[in-house]
Write a structure and sequence with these properties.
TIM Barrel; isomerase; eight-stranded parallel β-sheet; zinc; Ribul_P_3_epim; alpha/beta; 216 residues; globular; Aldolase_TIM
Length: 216
């Protein structure tokens, strides 16, 4: 069954702990935490102090998605804050292999994210080292955007590559995911669905999570 990682980018930051409890009780598998610096993407969100304050408030693993320039400068801070998975963008660093292996050697699961127009070929020499690949199905920076249909083809292509090279890698998809398009995204090869608005703007987050997990 596919896993669901609610994105707290769409949560009410005035009562973040309660918002996390909603999705924890609703059957979420991971907590997706988007970190934006206002440079790599146009928006600014939260940093290590907020993540650290949430540690211990939930049993959900912290799936930390770094949308920041020069992520290597901040990796230790996010590890210390309590990240369980750290995903960096292939577009954000010139030494991806070094960074991924640094994260892995620190005992954290490394992920690599690709923006919509970034080709899968950028992962060619890193597939033996990563835990997860995050396909951005919107241009990153803001929640509430529409899923880019062409990304279904990208997910299918990635699934074929993974099955040939390293079947243990998980495919996570983030951006514009809802109950309507989830079946096609899962069929294409997604293992983890990140959803923000679809979950947090719903009157019943647990119901949405269940529908996403059982979509077919």
């Amino acid at each position: 069954m596919v896993k669901v990682a609610p994105s707290i980018l769409s949560a009410d930051f005035c009562c973040l702990s309660e918002e996390i409890k909603k999705v924890e009780n609703g059957g979420a598998d991971l907590l997706h935490i988007d970190v934006m610096d206002g440079h790599f993407v146009p928006n600014i969100t939260l940093g290590p102090p907020v993540i650290s304050s949430l540690k211990g408030k939930t049993y959900l693993p912290f799936d930390v998605h770094l949308m920041i320039e020069n992520p290597e400068k901040h990796i230790d801070d996010f590890i210390k804050a309590g990240a369980d998975i750290i995903t960096v963008h292939v577009e954000s660093t010139v030494h991806l292999n070094r960074l991924v292996n640094y994260i892995k050697n620190k005992g954290i699961k490394p992920g690599v994210a690709l923006n919509p127009s970034t080709p899968l070929s950028s992962l060619q020499y890193i597939l033996d080292d990563i835990y997860m690949i995050l396909i951005m199905s919107v241009n990153p920076g803001f929640g509430g955007q529409k899923f880019i249909p062409k990304m279904l083809e990208k997910i299918r292509d990635l699934k074929r590559v993974i099955l040939q090279e390293n079947p243990e890698i998980l495919i996570e998809v983030d951006g514009g995911i809802n109950e309507e398009n989830a079946p096609d995204i899962i069929k294409a090869g997604a293992d983890i669905l990140v959803a923000g608005s679809a979950i947090y703007l719903s009157s019943n987050p647990g119901d949405v999570i269940e529908k996403l997990k059982t979509a077919h």
